[in-house]
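As a warm-up, study this chain.
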Amino acid sequence: MKKILLLLFTIALTPIYAQFIFQREINLTKPVDHWFVDPVGNIYILEGNKVSKLDSLGKLTYSQAIKSQGEINQLVFNSAQKIISFSEEQQQICIFDNTITPISACISLDDFGISNATCIASSSRANAVWLYDRVNSTLFQLDTDKKVINRQLRNIAGLVGFSGNTTYLKEDNEQLWISDGKSSFAFDLNLNYLEKIELPLSSTAFISKDTFFEFREDVFFVMNLSSKEQGIGENPVPNAENISLSNGYFFFKNGNKLFVYRLA
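Now compare it with the structure written out below.
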């Protein structure tokens, strides 16, 4: 695999030297599928409609069952003090403070004509969240405070060739990225189309601060999207199930453990 990746990425003019430095290991009580890290390194674990919060060292601090929301699929953070949850089953989002206490009543997406949202993403705009709705292949920005749609773009399948199978949705560096697992598409924050890249984005391949990271088996690849500088190195947690990056720290999940590293 290393030889294959080296062959694929030898076009770089100036290679990036990249090495991971181990920080700590966090033991979870049991293997979990859905977990998220907030901007200051707190860890949130989802089990059906239950949300548990661990501090950056893995100590349980809060736990709450949100019976009205059904199964919760995703959490996003507009800040370390505000948590936005998404339930695909119920087609609704709920807003909590950092003690998992509801701030307001949950918001039904059906009230905004959104009937098949599959994922959400945090927005740099205060009180806003991005959503993708399979119906008419539409991107939305929803203001959760004023409860209005700020922006929307319909039929991105027809406009840019997006397949509709969403593996990634994230705002980064004043751009909104969406991926179908094969190609990835960038829009500005007014939802004007910018570019398409032939790189997959997922839980192990993602963009942060205009830099693309991809982890495969025992190696990882990094590329600056602007300068095209590239690098390759050793994956510190081979075959990690998913990876999260928060405030410069990488969280690798493998079984019932999280391994935390920073990039030198």
